[in-house]
Every structure is written in C-alpha cells, then in structure tokens.
Amino acid sequence: MLVVKLGGRTQNDPALPAALAALWQQSGRRLVVVHGGGDQISALQRLRGEEPVFIGGRRVTTDTALELVRMVLSGLANKQMVSALVAAGAPAVGISGEDAGLLRATPIDAATFGHSGTPARVDPAVVRALLDAGYLPVISPVAARDDVAVAGAYNVNGDDAAAAIAAALGADELFLMADVPGVLDAAKTLVPRLTLDETQALVASGVAGGGMAAKLDACAAALAGGVSRVRIGDLAALTVPSAGTAIVARADATDAVSSR
C-alpha cells in the first residue's frame, strides 16, 4: 500500500497523471492519493480581498477561507485531478475527508488558526472499499469535525492528512511530493537520509522552514503511526524508490527500499 501526497504546484505538472497511473499499476492497484491546492485557495482569497496568512507552513483559516478551502480542495482541485487520472487510464474516484467520516479533526488553536484542524482520528473504511473495488481514491484533506453530532469542517494541512490516512491504512510507504528533489541542507544539497533528530535540527536552525517544516512534522507522525517508510521528493523521485530523502526514526533504523 502506497500513499502519495501531492503539493499544490506539483499537481500542475502535465506528466503527473501518467506517472500516477503507472504507479497505480505497479503497486498492484494499492495506491491512495491525497492532494492539496494551496495556490488556488490563496488566489481566490486575494480576489475576495483577504491576504493569506501562514504560520509554520499551515494556513490560518478564517470563515471566508474555509468556504474557499471546501470549494477548491473538495471541488475544483479534486475533480481536476480525478479527470486527469481517468484520462491517463486510472479509475480514480474523488472524495474528501468529510465523506463517510473518513478524516476527523480538532482545532489546532482556534484563536490563532481559526478553522484549521489537526487529525484526530481516521475511519479508512470508505478508502478500503474503493481499493477493494479496483478504484484509485483521490482524497481532499478537508476534514469533518471530531464531534460526530456537529456538522462543519476543518481545513487540515495535506501532509498531516496524508500521514494520518497512511497510518490508518497501515501503508508500506508515504511519499510527500515537493517542488524540490528532497530535503536540502544549508548548501542547498540533497540529503538522502535523515533521522527525526536531524529533521528537528534542520527546522530549529531555519534551514527547513514553512512547507518543508510541515512535511517533516508529518513524516514524524507517519512513522509514529506505524508507516514503514517515509520519503520526500519531486515527481522524478516518485517512481524511483531510492530517490528523494528518506526519513527514519533513528540512525540505526532500517530503510528498506520498496520493490513495489
């Protein structure tokens, strides 16, 4: 089982749908895609007179922004990716974290982040049903509220959502796609392997900031949740198991390269 998180900019690469369709076949049709769409959300926020605000790579989600998040992530971005994958030969089906209570979240800090949430629990039954029926699930990271009696949604960072979903599915690998070939050091050189302690040092020093810091946090959560292998890389690294940056729990941890 492989879970791939797509960043907003990487979703626009014309080579991506074919690469994912091929990977779906290579993985034995056990592939799950989680996507973002941050650039589209920010563009619409600005059109509505609201400047996007990020703290630690996570969006501050106002009442207005939450409407746009649902519209873009669960609507436009999700259906664009589904359409492209179907055209590339993969039977993709688009859902969001709100569907069937797949992903439930609690507020990060309502006073600071508004309607931005952090994963609280995952019920992967709908994802497993789609996989077992031969479909490729494409998931928007908009989450339902953790209180099942209360309607509404939270905007969950896509990396956090992918990590939680990968853990709940018992995934063999979580791949977080970025605009760079992996995690870069202060000299902008690719680091092929990092322990969690080393990732924390990169964040603390400011070498890894913003979106990359959020990705490294998600890697830690995925490993803690039992995901066997975690990587960060670009589209070129997607189908090359030895490429990108592998994140491991500690220096003596085994980083088994997946054969898929």
Protein traits:
24% strand; eleven-stranded mixed beta sheet; single chain; two-stranded antiparallel sheet; 9 helices; 260 residues; alpha/beta
Largest β-sheet summary: 11 strands, mixed
The overall pLDDT average reads: 93
Principal-axis shape equals globular
Look at the helices and sheets and give the structural class: alpha/beta
Low-confidence stretches: none
Number of strands: 13
Q: What is the N-to-C succession of helices and strands? A: EHEHEEHEEHEHEEHEEHHEHE
Word description of this protein:
The protein is of the alpha/beta class. It is 38% helix and 24% strand. The protein is built from 9 helices and 13 strands. The strands form 2 sheets. Strands 1, 2, 5, 6, 7, 8, 9, 10, 11, 12 and 13 form an 11-stranded mixed β-sheet that branches. A two-stranded antiparallel sheet has the order 3-4. A hairpin with a 2-residue loop joins β3 and β4.
Short characterization:
The chain is α/β, with parallel strands linked by helices and 260 residues long.
What are the SSEs and their pairings?
Elements: E1 2-6, H1 16-26, E2 31-35, H2 38-47, E3 54-55, E4 58-59, H3 63-87, E5 92-97, E6 103-107, H4 110-113, E7 116-122, H5 125-132, E8 136-145, E9 153-156, H6 158-169, E10 173-177, E11 193-195, H7 196-205, H8 210-224, E12 229-233, H9 235-238, E13 245-248
Parallel strand pairs: 1-2, 1-10, 2-8, 5-8, 6-8, 7-9, 10-12, 11-13
Antiparallel strand pairs: 3-4, 6-7, 8-9, 12-13
Helix pairs in contact: 1-3, 2-3, 6-8
